[in-house]
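Field guide to reading this record: the first block holds the primary sequence, the second block holds the structure written as C-alpha cells, and the final block holds curator observations. Each block starts with its own label. This record concerns DUF8056 domain-containing protein, catalogued under organism Salinigranum rubrum.

BLOCK 1 — SEQUENCE
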Amino acid sequence: MADGYRGVFGAFPYAFRQSRSLLFRSYVLVGALVAGAVTLLFGAGLVVLVAQTAAIEGGSLTLSRAFYIVVGLFVVAPLVAPVLFVARRHRRQEGDDARYDLALSLAGYLFIASLYVGLVITVPTDQQSPPPVAVAPLVETLYGLPQVAGVVPPLVGGCLILAVHRLLR
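BLOCK 2 — STRUCTURE
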C-alpha cells in the first residue's frame, strides 16, 4: 500500500505518524510495549504448559492449551485495538478528530490499569505482600475479593474501549 499502512504491525507507526494527539502517540508506544510483553509472557507460559503436559494424551489438556491461547488473545486484542481503530480511521480519512484519538488513548490506558487491578485481585494468598501505606486500604480490599473477580476489571476496560469507539466514530 502506498500509504504505509500494512496490517497490524504497520498500523502502529502509521497511527503514530497520523495522529495529532500527543497522549495517543504515547499510547502507541506504551501499548506496543505492553502488548509485546504480554505476548511474550503468554507465549512462554504456553511453552511451559505444553512441556509439562507433553507426555499426557489429548482430551481436556488439549482444550486447556487452546483456552490458554484464547485468553491471551482476549488480553492482547484490547491493547492493540485503540491503535488499530485510529489507524483505520485515518487511513479511510473518516475524520481528523483529535478528540477521538485522545479518548481511545485514555480508554487504552484505563485498560492497562484494569489489567493490573485484575492481576492484584488474583494474587494467591501466600504470595501477597504488604502494600505501601498510601494504597493499603485499596490493595487490601482487592486482595479480599474472590480470585474469579479478577476477570471483571479487564472485561470492563475492554468494553470501555469498544464503547468509546462506537460513541465517537
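BLOCK 3 — OBSERVATIONS
The mean pLDDT is 88.
The longest helix spans residues 22-53.
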